[in-house]
User: Fold these one by one.
Assistant:
Number 1:
Amino acid sequence: MDQQLNLLPSGFFSLSTNYEILAVNHTLLQLLEYEKEQLIGQTIHTILSKSTSKFFQLMFYPLMTSKQKVDEMYLELKSKKGHDIPILIYATSDKNKVITCVIVPITKRNEYEDQLLEAKKVAEERLIEVNKVNHQLKTALRNLEEKQEELLKVNSQISKYKMETQKELQLAKNIQETSLTEKIDNNHIQIESYYNASSELSGDIYGFYQINEHQYGVILLDVMGHGISSSLITMSLGTLFQRLISKGVPTDLLMKELDEHLHGLFYNNEEAWHYCTAIYLFIDTNKQTIEYVNAGHPPGLYHGSNDAQKELFASSPPIGSFEGMYYQTNTFNFVKGSRILLYTDGVSESHRRVSLNEMLKKHISIPIDDFKQHLLAAIQTDNNQEGPHDDQCFIIIDLK
Amino acid sequence: MNINLEVEIVEQDSTAIVLLAGEIDAYTAPKLKEALLPLAKQQGLLIEVNLEKVNYMDSTGLGVFISALKATKESGSELKLVQLQDRVKRLFEITALDSIITIDSTVRGGK
């Protein structure tokens, strides 16, 4: 055999008309692990697997008989040691009926095909997963869009509710402020006030009334906390003290009535319980006397015309705190030209009491309106720095 | 003012020591009330509230102590406030509550 044919990278052999092996190259011998002498003269079935033998008879023989040619037929050879080797066979027969065959082992190809099939299977599984995740994402997106729509709807409702509440609160603020008394200015007395709620509604309330030609009642109260609950209590107390002061009820009795009213409001309702600090001044411009009761309220400041100051300290705890309390009345004489400052702790917190004393002393000679502006400017400075934490209210009384 | 209030209770025999630290205002007062009122409703208990580490208190905080004092009057217990900072003690003085509530005269320097 030609040397080149012997070393072909493909297997080569030839068969007689009886399908006996006539020649075989080295490559095929190596593949089948036979020696040349062991195959020459042997029938082709020696090197065919059992299943391929039948197929060979059924397919190969007829094709060679009819067409003298076989292209790319898949067969399995059997090695000497019994291993099946998949191959593709190409065969032709010449004029002498000798069949020339070339085989190409396809073990690697099968492996590649298996890998490709496996890869295809994995890709298909991944695709299914991707489609599944994609579906889940679409569902989630749809849910999210629905939730977003709901949120927008709720947000719109909240905005509407907030707007309506704000409107109601503003109206309530107007009503609360309407209940405050107007300033008094006559030949005997001048009273100015300032009122600022930390939120829409305040827990502070005041009132000043001319009882008769020479007598005046001035009251300032601060209900615990601030906001809606405190403001409701101020309105309840406001109605009562307006009636009592206008009647000229004695100071200690007035405070007692307010105390009992508060206890009555929260009878059997400990959760809603509130207390209230209060200071009440009964001023007689004819006798030039001031009677006062301070129930737990920051001390009122009295500045006489001779620069003497007096602090109207609390002598009893806040109203509504303990039942059966005695509210002591204190009395002192005032001189004309004196000034009194009453305030809630929202004012004294932003201005230490010493500071208010000093301000009162420093500005004693300026008109009441100007003094009010000085106080407001000082309070405003503090508010700008920290913002008001509590309701702020003060009353200035000039005794002429 | 929305700073936390720390409340620690140490009970021994018939005494309960309540250690407070922080600020007592509208936000933290409910926490104090929740801790203090059940003690105040117990019979024959001495409740000593240590306010050394309380540097701010508003009217809501005072309200809790008034409620607690009222409860002790009914249960036969005793409420005592100790080691108040100047600023907090002044609040009890201004409101005349120092004449009703037992306050330890020892005052530590505060803000």
Note: Chain A has a mean pLDDT of 91.
Number 2:
Amino acid sequence: MEAATRNPATLDSVILTIDGRQVSVPAGTDILTAAKSAGIDIPHLCYDPRVEAIGACRMCSVKVEGARGLVAACGQSVAPGMQVITEDEELARRRKHVLELFLSEHCATCSGCDKSGACRLQDYAYRYQADPHRFGVYRPRYDGDNYTTLNKGILYDADKCIRCGLCVKYCETVQMAEALTFTWRADRMVVSTPGDDDLNDTSCELCGGCIRVCPTSAMLDKRAFHAGRNSDLQRVRTTCSYCGVGCQMDLMVDRQRNRIVRVTAEPGSPINDGNLCVKGHFGFEFVSSPERLTQPLIRRNGALEPATWDEALALIGSRMQEIRKQHGPDGLAFISSARCTNEENYLVQKIARAVVGTHNVDNCATSCHAPTVAGLAESFGSGAMTNSTTEIRDCKVLFLIGANPTEAHPIFGLEMKRALRRGAKLIVCDPRETWMAKHADIHIQHRSGSDNMLLNAMMRHIIDEGLADRNFIESRCEDYEAFAENLKGYTVEAAAECCGVDAELIRAAARMYAEGEPSAIYYTLGITEHACGTDNVKNVANLAMLCGQIGKWASGVNPLRGQNNVQGACDMGAMPAKLPGYQRWSDAEVRARFEAVWDAPMPQTEGLKIPMMIAAAGAELRALYVMGQDIVATEPNQAEVIERLKSLDFLVCQEIFLTETAKLAHVVLPSTTFAEKDGTFTCSERRVQLVRKAVEPPGEAKADWEILCLVAEALGKPMPYRDPAEIYDELASLSPMFAGISHRRIAEHGGLQWPCPSDDHAGTRFLHEGRFTRGKGRFHAIRHQPPREEPTPEFPLILSTGRTLYNYNCGSMSRKSAVISQKESANFVEIHRDTAARYGIADDEKIVVRTARGRVTARAAVGERVRPDTIWMPFHFAEESANVLTNDVFDPVTATAEYKCCAAEIEKLPAAGTERLGSKSHAAHATR
Amino acid sequence: MALSDALRAEFEELCTHYPERRAGLIPALHRCQDENGGWLTPEILEDLADFFGLAPVDVYGVASFYPMFRLRPVGEHVISVCHNISCALRGAEALLEHICERTGARPGLDGTSPDGRFTVLRVECQGACANAPMVEVHGEYHEDLDPAKVDRLLAELQSGAPARGAR
């Protein structure tokens, strides 16, 4: 039974007696969970708190006074006055018998088993002294191939399977991938896929959930097979370093071999409740990749050659100081990293401002969610998710626009699936038919770049129908009149025409959102990565204010952040306009506070954002220091970026791999992954969480914060921090919104959500309750502006780009995983069936995609996920980069590029038109 | 498309007899199997999943659970030989051996004769214990069997004549 997250005090509670102890739990709780809350562990094999009770294993049978026979504790709700006995001689005898039956069908080879020491079957067999041979000796009988034989990540061993059904149920109801089932029956029954197909040819999303829920060793991590039993490994709780969800995961570490052996997660963990996606579960191989940088490199005679740390630091010190002397502090710039910790981001901007003396510091948020930071700050006063992840399940109407959470933010996707199971309605506005779109009550498949047409028409309809929240608008907002006046120019019919969708859908979506109790908006880069990104964000904020759907539990405006610490990189002031905690350096009081602690004057000239740095490179900008970002792979119009970087006098890269950007550097410093250092990440829901060191870095690589301290020293201003906790304390002392946060308190609370102004503050779950951060919520009149580049006879299609489930960003981390590479190893372009037919292009055929800026080849994934006027490509593949094609036009406020639409053409490869590549799974993935 | 328009129409009507659409799956599987020469192809299962709004994995789970659904090609005539207690006491094993010799088919993963004419299956009780031993072919029961009766039955099947059930 799934408990609501709402304040438990508001739920009816039930008092019952378990083993003579009075226990009080919310009504609807099952006996097993009630007992657990009182510290009584009822044995169970097929129970998991995330999965509806299966009741197959009979281990949790208990005695309930007055009931006929024994009762399965997992499936029976508590009742007032219930008397439960969970353990006595008779129950022990029965459990022993049940275990012996299980063991008669389980190949008990504990001495050679990965699961030994963490196996519930083994634990209970010991506890009840079950005889594994009571019904004869089990001989292995499944030696043939099964659905996992070819898979590199998951191993199914039917000889170990006790047919509890937990993996099947998890796959069906939690992940909702529906890849697994029981096949055959009786003693032939095994877990398999439809037609016993290879796992990668099914709807399996490789989340690893089957492995994590398996109570025995029937489901194992194939790559960790025989690499250490759980009891040999050390468990290190840390924060995932992929997307911005902020999942808590446990690295299982072999200290002697200095290796992460496998990754797992426990139900009940903050944010992800023990769920992980393919990247979290299988994507850690990059940490021990042989391609890691292990020593500093210096460019000598045109080539990068190994050097000592002393040489590299001395060169950085002398070159950067020379350039500073010659061209002034603004001749240098720093790009910080959304993948590095808060502490490291804080140091980068401190070095830029307090050591070099420039505001030329930025991070990748400029490429993604800067319009969120700017737009929501204008509308509400702070630019972050207004609600928490755990509130999603209580939402009644989910409004997704330009967001594909099941792929880009899989655990947010999982929480939304949970909301759907609890009866939530779903509206999806997306040019692609994503998983969420397929399962939506209303899918508005509007043309890329027509968001404001759609939103304006919806809002006009809401006003016309009297669905606006007058009271909220009057008491909480301002500038409504100009906003409402602007909407008069936008009819539903005109929007339907411009967006290429049915007018009735727009009306229905408007009504459904306005009437939700409550509704919440979730958006991602489909809103921000446009030349009108900031306008889009403000209009999303308008919609929420118009309906009063903000500042409440499970109701608000939620930008889902892309990188693990992009929220933190912004929070730490790694951007030109703001200091840590979004404080303005132009404010005299703020400036004085920082100058006193930093012991340096605050620079007074505006700094450059990343696209401006690139544009100025070789001109006003002479030196660039890049920490953990591959701008060549991720910025639009790649050829131009490379040209610009080559014209710099001095380029330093602090990296874990020799990325496309690092290949151009004068000095490359080997740094560390999230698993090799301590610090904090701040995830999308504003929660600051700990990152813990699990393994030693390879070779001479150093933690980024240590490198930055050495660089500061080389630049003439030592920063002798002892550890990241000390760095955090300094930034907390300078930023009122983080003042109550410290490493010690984060550990105590399992993360803290800002704002957290004092030591006794528990953090803030949702924002803008009663009052917006800026006082009144501000409406903006937003006009629809078409994309900068529209289809032409030469380039008749719209190209949009985005992320897939399996890979991440420029691919430097995710593509090191053999499991992920097996599933998705090469670029593809999604084309509608009708469009492909018109061009004579077959599924899986390698084709050319062209725009005014360049051309790449990619495999055609023909299906119905995109509109006939649109093609879509992921940007994870550096060798055939989508960013060769994308348009380098930018949002005027935030310099965010229009990655989401440009004009393109496709054509067959000359001569080699029938060449095929990649695995079948691409096609399956694209057409599903 | 493995599912013909005629079958789709038939199944639409079928679904009206049940409170839930998915309840029509098992009768639909039987019909498809009959139409397809005695077995169900992966394409049929996929189409049925689509038709009933189920995940392919659910349809596969059902089809593989029941032994009367066959997921591999079968011979022209499928002979199901009961080997349960009554039949066993009355010589089912010898009878089965006799049938295997005559047809060249043998129960197992691929129980079909090389000429593709016969598939022989070993099945559980068919509820005809009073007249054991028995086999079932094309939905007809043939009971009180001995090798001579079996030979006559096989000859009838070989000749293409409709083998009517007999005691």
Note: Chain A has five domains: 8-87, 112-288, 297-364+567-753, 370-559, 797-927.
